[in-house]
Amino acid sequence: MLFQFHSLILAENRGKGHMKIISYNVNGIRAAITKGFLEWLQAEAPDVICLQEIKATIDQIPLLEFESIGYKYHYWFSAQKKGYSGVAVLCKQEPKHIEYGTGIEHMDFEGRNLRVDFDNISVMSLYLPSGTNDDRLSYKFKYMDDFQNYVNKLTQTIPNLIICGDYNICHEAIDIHNPQQNANTSGFLPEERAWLDAFMKNGFIDSFRHFNKEPHHYSWWSYRANARNNNKGWRIDYNLVSNSLKDALQSARILPEVKHSDHCPIEVVLKL
């Protein structure tokens, strides 16, 4: 009931011409649904929601349930490996174009990029690899470099782009609860942080930091040591907005009270 009331207030405040976009690493869409994800989504009612780590193929997802709560237009890009990775974008309004993947094979077989294009804005769901071991860390850096080149070309024809998702990188010390202890941990390595910093400076706004400069705001918590209750987290999820949309930015927030995953949703609202 609280979610429904909050959603009604936000919808009233947004008004006509505003677009509310949420990004959410659900850490398994089927598991999230058992924890009340559909009820929350219906109440929150974003115009577009980008999902990461869906960990399911389309035949395993209750598509009609999404349609019944207003998401008639839903697009899913699963990894070839069962129960792994995968992204999705769900929309209230029909996009004019849907782009599955990047066209770069090593990036696409794990289902990490999906973009929807509207008349004046494009929204991408991104799940950037984590560097859980040496092999994956090397792959993460390759992915990061190739993704930067891909976006450089993409923005030549699609300047109004929002890249929503799990970047698996904390940008600055303010974005992690224990920066000194994690200085040599993937997700907070100097090279990763430098890449993300350069990526943002190459044409994107960190929408949350545009509005909020305060510490202790995180989007992911380990399941260990009661980390979430103690707010010992990392901010690794971002809604990065093209510089061209700066004047359209209305608000951005993190929703740590929403608990269907080890991540929480992040939101940006634009006036278009």
Give a short summary of the structure:
By secondary structure, the chain is an alpha+beta fold. The chain is built from eight helices and 14 strands.
> Into which percent range does the helicity of residues fall?
25-40%
Look at the helices and sheets and give the structural class. alpha+beta
Series of H and E elements: HEHHEHEEEHEEHEHEHEEEEE
Report low-confidence residues grouped into runs of 5 or more.
1-14
Mean pLDDT comes to 94
Biggest beta sheet summary: 6 strands, mixed
Total strands: the figure is: 14
Strand content: 25-35%
C-alpha end-to-end distance? 30 Å
> Total number of helical segments?
8
Strand neighbour order, sheet with most strands: 3-4-2-1-14-13
Basic shape: globular
Radius of gyration: 17 Å
Oligomerization state of this entry?
Answer: single chain
Describe the structure.
The chain has 272 residues and is an alpha+beta fold. It is 29% helix and 25% strand. It is built from 8 helices and 14 strands. The protein has helices at 2-14, 29-34, 37-44, 63-68, 105-108, 134-157, 190-201, 207-211; strands spanning 18-25, 48-52, 73-77, 87-91, 97-100, 113-117, 122-127, 161-166, 204-206, 220-221, 233-234, 237-242, 249-254, 266-271. The strands form 3 sheets. Strands 3-4-2-1-14-13 form a 6-stranded mixed β-sheet. It has a 6-stranded mixed β-sheet with strand order 5-6-7-8-12-9. The radius of gyration is 17 Å and the shape is globular. It starts with a helix and ends with a strand. The model is unreliable at 1-14 (pLDDT under 50).
